[in-house]
Amino acid sequence: MSLEYTDTLKHFKKITNNKSIVSNPALKGVHHKKDVLLASDGFRILQVEVRGKDFEETVININDDSEIDVEYPNAERLFINDNEVEHVLFINEVEVLKLKKVLSFIKSLGIEKIDITNVDDNWYLEPAPMEDLNISLKHKFCSNQIGDQKKRSFKTKYLLDAVEFIRSTKESTQFHMTENYLRPVQFKSYDYTYLLAPCR
Fold first, then answer.
1. 153 Rama class: left (phi>0) / alpha (psi -120 to 50) / beta
2. Distance between CA atoms of 83 and 93, rounded to whole angstroms?
3. How far apart are CA 149 and CA 165, in angstroms?
4. 6-35 residue pLDDT tens
5. Rounded to an integer, what distance in angstroms lies between the CA atom of residue 132 and that of residue 190?
6. Could you give the CA distance from residue 199 to residue 17 in angstroms, rounded to a whole number?
7. What is the crossing angle of helices 93-108 and 156-169, to 10°?
8. Maximum Cα interatomic distance, the chain, rounded to a whole number of Å
């Protein structure tokens, strides 16, 4: 599915409007170059190919369409290359919708951190333990897997934002990881890569 420019903007705004961005003015904008859009807030990166476009290289504040006169940082080195991928989860379109609903519910409870765990080759989404919240919730979202990674933790909001973007593509996705649990993970398809840094 080809992604439309205007459809991607609301997802880019969730990244560029992150209030924790203060140090680098470039991160307030979306990098445009050829047919690729890219935005980061230091915790996640969204890169989207918009077919049929040929942008001049520039950084645009998409809140007011103004150009930001800065050089955008090189983010390519942060993505997991195909030869580095050690763990792959295949998540179909139906499961993407379920993940969105589960994450929305977890976020509505005020739970800020989520764990993705592997138990007996089944992958689960569950709230990270909290002292002041007595809840038990575990959602199995994937059985097909390559690799043996056991656990990753993420900010609930960031993972939900990524899943909402993937849901908007109306397609399945792949979830890539390396053995190093401190390295970012990424959702990947032909038209996009959505990278997320885990909580430490």
1. beta
2. 26
3. 24
4. 889 999 999 998 877 667 888 899 999 999
5. 42
6. 20
7. 150
8. 52
DSSP 65-79: TEEP-SPPP--GGGS
Q: What per-residue confidence (pLDDT) applies to 36?
A: 96
- How far apart are alpha carbons 189 and 175 in whole angstroms? 9
Strands (E), 50-184: 55-61, 66-67, 87-91, 113-119, 122-127, 139-142, 145-146, 151-155, 173-177
CA distances from 162 to 64, 70, 176, 188 (A): 23, 26, 14, 11
Query: Which amino acid is present at 13?
Result: K
User: Mean pLDDT over residues 103-119, rounded?
Assistant: 93
Q: Are 97 and 158 in contact (CB under 8 A)?
A: no
Helix (H/G/I), strand (E/B), else coil: 98: helix
Long-range contacts of 65-68 (CB under 8 A, 24+ apart): 68/25, 68/26, 68/28, 68/29
Which helix (H) or strand (E) element contains residue 168?
helix 156-169
Asked if 64 and 13 touch (Cβ cutoff 8 Å), the reply is no
pTM above 0.90, yes or no: yes
User: Tens digit of pLDDT for each residue in 55-69?
Assistant: 999 999 988 999 999
- Give φ, ψ of 140 to 5 degrees: -80, 125
DSSP state of 62: T
